[in-house]
Amino acid sequence: MTATWATLRQSPLMASGGWRLTELLTPAARTALAEEAVRSHSAAAQVVRLDRSPDEERERGNPARYMEWAPGGSRLRAFYHAPPLLALLRRLTGLDWTPSGEQAAFSYYRRPGHHLDVHKDIDACDLAVITCLHEDGAPADGLAGALCLWPGRTGDRLTEIRADPAPGRVPVRLRPGESIVILGGLVPHRLEAMAEGHVRVVAPLCFRAATE
């Protein structure tokens, strides 16, 4: 983790385990972003990487994944760079953050088995904001399609969490319009495999500390 630890340790986000749920979008803004995601899907690429990364001696993994991805448009870019969002991140962390790039992308999980395996985010994504734009067919129970976090296992190797995921696991189901702010470079997390008939579209945004 490359951000300023002395500040982060005292922050509201760390006090809540390195993650927090919030609502950042009005219903109209969420609808507009969801519509942009639908339009962008025509240019989506399938991302398939089923081999687990050799991360035994690494702090962060390059996880197995099976999903679809498409670059966003003007609405997603505006959300990514919105001053109110950046102000919220400062309130939660005590630090200034800047988008890791000019544009973000939409992620589509819409086939059985679509998933993103357990990982910590890359250096340019020490802080992540994941917003659910659409969900349909979510199972009533079980872990299928849930975002699972391990805030109490930040010191464990990723392979240890994969081998024994139950201890410390916190499942989170984002509702459409709901966002999670997570110290993704610190807290291990995984999007569990999707079940039949379950569709989920999200906008993951990555940030790095502005002082770096």
Account of the protein in words:
The chain has 212 residues and is an alpha+beta fold. The chain has a single domain (5-47, 63-209), classed as Jelly Rolls, CATH 2.60.120. 22% of the residues lie in helices and 31% in strands. It has helices at residues 5-8, 12-15, 27-40, 74-80, 83-93, 158-163, and strands at 19-23, 45-49, 65-71, 97-99, 105-109, 115-119, 127-136, 147-149, 170-172, 178-182, 189-191, 199-209. Strands 1, 2, 3, 4, 5, 6, 7, 8, 9, 10, 11 and 12 form a 12-stranded antiparallel beta sheet that branches.
Topology:
Elements: H1 5-8, H2 12-15, E1 19-23, H3 27-40, E2 45-49, E3 65-71, H4 74-80, H5 83-93, E4 97-99, E5 105-109, E6 115-119, E7 127-136, E8 147-149, H6 158-163, E9 170-172, E10 178-182, E11 189-191, E12 199-209
Antiparallel strand pairs: 1-10, 2-3, 3-5, 3-6, 4-12, 5-12, 6-11, 7-10, 7-12, 8-9, 8-11
Keywords:
about 210 residues; alpha+beta; Jelly Rolls; 12-stranded antiparallel β-sheet
Briefly note the structural class of the backbone.
alpha+beta
Q: Give the integer mean of the pLDDT values.
A: 91
Distance between the termini: 12 Å
At the fourth level of CATH, the homologous superfamily is: q2cbj1_9rhob like domain
Report the strand count.
Answer: 12
Q: Proportion of β residues?
A: 25-35%
Order of helices and strands: HHEHEEHHEEEEEHEEEE
Largest sheet: 12 strands, antiparallel
CATH class: Mainly Beta
CATH architecture: Sandwich
What are the segments in which pLDDT stays under 50 over at least 5 consecutive residues? none
Output the radius of gyration.
16 Å
Please work out how many helical segments DSSP would assign.
6
Helicity level, as a percent range? 10-25%
Determine the CATH topology: Jelly Rolls
Please give the domain count.
Answer: 1
